[in-house]
Amino acid sequence: MSYFDHSATTPIHPLVMEKMNSTSESHFGNPSSIHTSGRKAKSIIESSRRMIAESLHASSNEIIFTGSGTEANNSILWSLIYEKNKHVITSSIEHPAILKVLDSIAPFGVTYTKLPVNKFGEVNPRNLEESIKDNTGLISIMMINNEVGTINPIKDLIKVAEENNIPFHSDAVQALGKAPLSVKDIRADYLSFSGHKFYGPKGVGFLYKKNKSKLNPIIIGGGQEDQFRAGTENISGIVGLAEAVRLAIENLDKRILHLEKLESEFKNKLLQYSSNVIFNGHPDKHAPGVISASFLGKRSDILLAELDREGIEVSSGSACGSGSVKPSFVLGEMGLSENQNTSTIRISFGRSNSMEDVNILVNALVKFTNV
Amino acid sequence: MSDTVIVGMSGGVDSSVTAKILKDQGYNVECVFMKNWEGDDDNCNAEEDYKDALSICDHLDIPLRSVNFSNEYWNKVFQHFINEYANGRTPNPDVLCNREVKFKAFLDYAFELGAVKIATGHYAQINESENQFQLLKALDANKDQSYFLYLLGQNELSKSLFPIGDIDKVKVRKLAEDYGLINYAKKDSTGVCFIGEQKFFKEFLKKYIPVKPGLIHTIDGKICGEHDGLMYYTMGQRKGLGIGGGYGLKEEPWFVADKDLDNNILIVAQGHDHPSLFHQGLEADQLHWINEAPKSSMKNISAKIRYRQDDQECKITELSKNNCKVIFNNPQFAITPGQSIVFYLNNQCLGGAIIDKRF
Q1: Given an 8 Å threshold on Cβ–Cβ distance, is A324 in contact with B47?
Q2: Which residues on A lie below 8 Å from B30 (Cβ)?
Q3: Highest mean pLDDT among A273-277, B124-128, B227-231
Q4: What pLDDT was estimated at residue A323?
Q5: Is B124 helix (H, G, I), strand (E, B) or coil?
Q6: pLDDT digits (tens, 9 = 90+) for B284-295
Q7: How far does chain B reach from its first CA to its final CA, in angstroms?
Q8: Contact by Cβ (8 Å): A53, A63
Q9: How far is A111 from A90, CA to CA, in rounded Å?
């Protein structure tokens, strides 16, 4: 099998797996218990929290563990229903874990403005500035788009938020492991992350919440995570998450270099052999190894099936619940024609892909798309 | 590599057994799940069905792909369905769905995916003789679905397989159980697929067609009640008229005998055997023959004017390219405009047409 869908999810890193397994084997205690087993479990969670905080140059009390990146996004948005200023500014190509949530909380008085994106998928900071209202209580704009990999001018956007004294959240799920991530540098109030996007486990994520930034909890119960997110902690998941963050940050330059190499090799080879390919997204400002490619005249669902038969896994558009492929709204917002939209696939390389894999992929694409 | 057959997989017993039989026969089998209806507010079970399809295909080690034909369904089937109801007729969307979606959009898609044949879990049989493909009834007469397939032509039949057409349903379920398929006991789907159970029908139509209530008349022109809109009633309908059996001279139930569309009046008759509920003949249009058109003098022709009706002996008295006139040997109860009349010669389905008028 050749796997080129790392923006969807990644396999667990062997070192992460090792830590998770040994934690599961040895530590079953409830971190809220005060006996030895409980204290040990709690201490494991707290050292994981410190590890993540150090990696991102944050403080420990700024890291809140959640069940997913989606949950981190939800907690930020649902928190608004208790606030006075209920207007949100977001972008038109956010993940459904932002856009659908905003629709869901409309009955609680939350309104929102969706900023357009340019043909590369970037939000313009000037548009943000102009959209601010008296009751704007949050700006939520993704760091890296999941379908085309375009990196938003996040620091410029945050600057606008700071000047207007409005809290800024960014869905950074696609960013960790592909772009530098220090909260000293990216001064957002809130950031959402998901473990399985950077070789950690599924079912665990975290929210970075800057000290003193407000958060009204939505999951209430036994008071875990400083009252911000109740529920007995997923100890081995958290251990794996922390290890995955550490590895991602420590090896960031190496990983980026590897992904960039694969990407340029892939693009060069493909352009050499294929006459009808178009690359979408920003040519420079995009996540390394994430490629949105349109093969005009070739429907993406057919191409996906043909690749799947050869054991090559990529993705297209956003798959909806029952698995049917529809035109991608992200590509639509970027102004792609319906034809180009439905002939687009996403290739996302990962750490275990090799140059040999690139050749396999290019050969298959050429075979199936050259008409 | 062996020939690729692509199975239309619904997540039900019939298509699952179909896929397994073909795989055992040595074909390279792939399945495609079709999503033909959008909307969260309806009673559509697409999500559950997809999960079943996924589990079945995983169990059988067959790749499953998905495709969305909701645009095709909406434009080619549903619009027509609504128009017919708005005109007081009773359409049959499954017949059109077969022609426009399963044996057109899906067939084309499957061939694009590299299939040499498609297969479905329909209960019907295909017989090839002298380069002609005939559509035959299923072995299980009780389950025969040829009525819904009469709009297929040579092209479609030549590219299709119905592997369970010669197996009875009880045996199909037994096979499903033997194969270890989780859905062997799953209920057969009934009713119109996108509406679900009959009880939701009124509510559903109301969303798409303005409601025009009016009066109910007896066959002699006496007012005997009010109706909620002619579209809600079908010929021969007994339930839901709001007229007690006690009304009238006899203690017998009332039936829908006719619709006066110009005056928005529903006409009812008392007693199942009332002569106004029976007609000797009908006119039909949108005629389609699977093989060449029969001569109007053709003997031994029979027809069904609704699904699962016994074949009724008849004669085609007038015949043109698109229209026909049919006289039955015995008068027929509740001939319903908008429904299909499907012609048979013994076991063979010849084709059919849409009922327009009765006389």
Answers
A1: no
A2: 305
A3: B124-128
A4: 45
A5: strand
A6: 999 999 998 887
A7: 58
A8: yes
A9: 11
